[in-house]
Specification:
heterodimer; A: alpha+beta; 2 domains; 5 helices; 5 strands; elongated
Chain lengths: ~180, ~325
């Protein structure tokens, strides 16, 4: 009985929820609508109703990978990655984290550019620290980020092949911190 | 007209589609938890990949995070790592309970909350599978998903009777899927790569997704174009063709094929399986069969009672 009395209210709430789903899918930022918008945005975070669905849209861009050159006391260098291939699911997530080294590359605002550069450097230092932890004999770690740009079919037919190109590099030395700067 | 709309949204329905979603989602997320078991501390701890205060840069502001729990638990002298492991263990346990349909409502709330907490704790690792899990855990928490195929029903804790709440929950989830595929289809259709066949070619050549050597496709460009067009057709047409009974079965099969294709050719196992499970659970499992059976059962019971009431023995004992 109680449930049936609640049904009109639940239906209305369901309709409002679906409107928020449409707003999220349409990239409408509710936080621009004051306190109510902020509350709805928080609800969107809880329910996932504020998300958009542009997977592989409008197209596929470049892929980044991060590798670490570990240099030991004898000067011998080894190229390693953080992904341990324990599962593809885990590797995907690690790749998402290392992808932060190329995130916000296109920022136009100077403050945003600075913030992006600072964040990138912090992420690089953190990842390098992880590598130092895994390779105890390492004297230096060079973080190398490469980008893979796929080649379209017509270009491929003309003999062009996709390849990795280095877009970022930073060297970290035990105890002394960062040595190099991004390319 | 109004009565038709009311019936569409509120006519009592069996909870079987919701139960199918509940079980499918629990199994998929348990598999995901198994694959991530060795990385949980690396992903969420401040001694993991994002060390020290850096992990806070990837928190979603104002939301519960593992760091918040770690700060609380430190008062009990529990380390951050142990707190994260306890949260992970509780999450897995809640998924097991949710899948079995044991204390379904409570376990769904815990599963949703802990999943959300983990998502908020390192936003940089999230991808599509997490988003959809979050969306449907939220729905399961609010819907009567324990009303079918659950230990709660078996133990008599929950009634399996059809309810309006089950129908309303199902409709909202179905509409969400329609909105999602339409939005996804529109965004894809706005890019040239989906029309000229370049998208599948490029995606299949990306090292992160590459499962097989697919460069032979260069000799069959119509295959990648066909793949792009059919994806657009299935996603844009979903909102229309998933409803009529005549086209529903084909569309369900199409969506399963599309998402299993992602699993096989791009290696996105958890994402592909989760997506492949949604449409058959919400559109393929009938909410009516249980209703018919319940009605038949009620009619039989009512007939029986009428027949028995006619018997002086029963009527006297009933009074």
């Amino acid at each position: 009985m109680q449930t049936s009395r609640m049904l009109p209210i639940l239906t209305l709430l369901g309709a409002v929820h679906l409107m928020l789903v449409i707003a999220g899918a349409s990239y409408i930022d509710l936080s621009e609508f004051g306190p109510v918008g902020n509350a709805l945005n928080y609800y969107g975070e809880m329910s996932g109703s504020n998300k958009s669905y542009g997977f592989f849209a409008p197209g596929v861009g470049a892929q980044a990978r991060t590798r670490f050159e570990v240099i030991d006391a004898a000067g011998k260098s080894t190229l390693v990655s953080l992904e341990r291939s324990s599962s593809h699911e885990a590797d995907l997530r690690i790749n998402n984290i290392t992808g932060q080294l190329t995130a916000n590359d296109g920022e136009e605002d100077t403050d945003d550019q600075d913030a992006a550069r600072d964040l990138r450097r912090s992420v690089a230092a953190s990842l390098a620290g992880k590598v130092f932890g895994r390779y105890r004999g390492a004297q230096a770690v060079i973080v190398r980020v490469d980008e893979f740009n796929p080649v379209d079919m017509p270009e491929y037919r003309q003999g062009l092949r996709p390849k990795w190109e280095e877009i970022y590099q930073a060297k970290f030395v035990q105890d002394t911190g960062i040595m190099g700067v991004p390319l | 007209m109004i009565s038709n709309v009311t019936r569409f949204f509120l006519a009592p329905a069996s909870a079987k589609p919701l139960a199918a979603l509940r079980i499918g989602l629990a199994l998929t997320l348990l598999a995901q938890a198994y694959f991530l078991r060795l990385e949980i501390l690396e992903l969420f701890s401040s001694t993991g990949y994002l060390q020290g205060a850096l992990i806070h840069s990837f928190h979603i502001p104002g939301t519960p995070t593992t760091s918040m729990f770690a700060a609380w638990m430190s008062r009990l002298s529990l380390s951050e790592d142990l707190t994260i492991l306890l949260l992970g263990g509780a999450y897995v346990l809640s998924l097991v309970f949710m899948g079995l349909g044991l204390y379904t409502r409570a376990s769904s709330v815990v599963a949703w909350f802990l999943h959300w907490t983990l998502m908020n704790s390192n936003d940089s690792t999230n991808y599509g599978a997490d988003l959809f899990a979050q969306v449907f855990l939220f729905y399961l928490m609010l819907s009567p998903a324990g009303g079918a195929w659950s230990l709660d029903v078996y133990l008599g804790r929950t009634s399996p009777a059809p309810t309006s709440a089950a129908r309303l929950s199902l409709r909202i989830m179905q509409f969400h899927l329609c909105i999602m595929y339409l939005a996804s289809g529109i965004e894809k259709a706005s890019g040239l790569q989906w029309w000229n066949g370049q998208l599948l070619w490029r995606a299949l050549s990306m090292p992160i997704y590459k499962q097989y050597e697919m460069s032979w496709l260069i000799d069959y460009p119509f295959l990648t174009q066909l793949g792009g067009w059919s994806t657009l057709l299935f996603e844009l047409g979903y909102i229309i063709f998933i409803w009529p009974r005549r086209t529903r079965r084909f569309w369900i099969l199409a969506m399963i094929s599309l998402h299993l294709g992602i699993v096989v050719f791009m290696g996105l196992g958890i994402f592909g399986v989760l997506m492949a499970m949604l449409t058959p659970a919400l559109f393929g499992v009938s909410p009516e069969k249980g209703v018919l059976a319940a009605r038949e059962c009620a009619a039989t019971t009512s007939n029986l009672q009428r027949g028995l009431a006619a018997s002086p023995l029963v009527s006297s004992s009933a009074t």
